[in-house]
Design brief:
With 104 residues, this protein is mainly alpha-helical. 67% of the residues lie in helices and 4% in strands.
């Protein structure tokens, strides 16, 4: 007798963490929930494979994985933009000491 299909418990959590990772990815704080979402997605996918198709929610896992990757890309993009802005700020700042005229 085959068991009834059951929803995967981690599927909604992966989606929620992926969404949080996407929404906070610009602030670089989205790296943590996005990473956790990717780790949980791996576990949930492995559990669904071992269940032989009796765990549902693979669509939620895929969506959460995509959102988590987008959050990581946003975090990396904002970090690169911040580094470039910092380097440009340092490049325009005057360097060395500024002595008064007539000082040896």
């Amino acid at each position: 007798m085959d068991p009834d299909p059951a929803p995967a418990t981690k599927a909604r959590a992966v989606f929620a963490l992926g969404l949080v990772g996407l929404l906070t990815g610009v602030f670089v704080g989205g790296v943590i929930p996005a990473t956790i979402a990717l780790l949980m997605a791996r576990q949930a996918h492995r559990q669904a494979y071992e269940a032989g198709g009796y765990l549902t929610g693979s669509v939620w896992i895929q969506r959460g994985r995509r959102l988590a990757w987008c959050g990581l890309v946003l975090a990396l993009t904002s970090l690169v933009v911040a580094v470039i802005a910092g380097l440009l700020h340092l490049a325009t700042a005057p360097g060395g000491q500024d002595f008064a005229p007539g000082t040896d």
